[in-house]
Specification:
Number of strands: 9
Radius of gyration: 14 Å
Order of helices and strands: EHEEEEHEEEE
CATH superfamily: 2,3-Dihydroxybiphenyl 1,2-Dioxygenase, domain 1
Largest sheet: 9 strands, mixed
Helix content: 10-25%
Strand content: 35-45%
CATH class: Alpha Beta
Number of helices: 2
CATH architecture: Roll
Number of domains: 1
């Protein structure tokens, strides 16, 4: 069901140092940075990610956070996005589409739910 969890961080370097230490202790490889400075950990087909909030505000519980849902293919994501908008969701970030990442190409779509929580549908090598 879930593809990834992303949490906000005000100091990416400090957060990466903590998570690299803590997660490698339980068998998860160290995080990798992408071109936007986010850090991603991959294990068992799932991602845990760190980011500074895109809106420039300080990170807090959920600012910078995303709940990701795994999808079988890009068509399923488009099918997820359309009724989400029709039922009160607000598109955010880039439009649905392919993006390059350190782990390969991903097809992503983002929405804010009616309460403002950011959710994502993802299809790609890890999904």
């Amino acid at each position: 069901m879930f593809s990834h969890v992303m949490v906000g961080a005000n100091d990416i370097a400090a957060s990466q140092a903590f998570y690299d230490a803590a997660l490698t202790a339980i068998g998860i490889p160290p995080g990798r940075r992408d071109p936007k400075g986010r850090v991603a950990y991959m294990h068992g087909g799932s991602f845990f990610m760190l980011t500074t909030p895109i809106d420039g505000a300080p990170a807090c519980h959920a600012n910078g956070g995303t709940i990701g849902f795994r999808a079988a293919d890009p068509e399923a994501i488009d099918a997820w996005h359309e009724p989400g908008v029709a039922h009160g969701g607000t598109p955010c970030e880039d439009p649905p589409g392919w993006r390059d990442s350190p782990f390969g190409r991903l097809y992503l779509a983002y929405l804010r739910d009616p309460s403002g929580n950011k959710v994502c549908a993802m299809h790609g090598p890890a999904a």
